[in-house]
Specification:
With 91 residues, the chain is an all-alpha fold. Helix content is 69%, strand content 0%.
């Protein structure tokens, strides 16, 4: 008897998570821009390098926590969206 009660989130949550990960495909261009103007971004450049890890972990935890705590999943995705907007303003 399998005691694992894990259920997948609905399809629309998976689509939202994938959409939130799409900007990472353009992240090498962001890193190139940061490295080209290193004097301008010297204090925040490490944030641009660790941001993809943050985005992937945030989406992973949003996926895993959806069934147990839907509000936490939505909060994680909203904070990730705000982080994308913050990176856009930094550039």
């Amino acid at each position: 008897m399998n005691m694992n009660n894990y259920q997948r989130p609905p399809w629309w949550v998976i689509v939202v998570i994938i959409v939130m990960l799409l900007p990472l495909f353009f992240w090498p261009a962001v890193i190139t821009r940061v490295l080209a103007d290193y004097e301008k971004y010297d204090t925040v450049s490490i944030l641009f390098f660790i941001f993809p890890l943050y985005a992937v972990l945030s989406c992973y935890y949003a996926y895993k926590s959806y069934e147990a705590r839907k509000d936490l999943s939505v909060i994680l995705l909203c904070v990730l969206l705000l982080a994308y907007i913050g990176c856009w303003f930094l550039l």
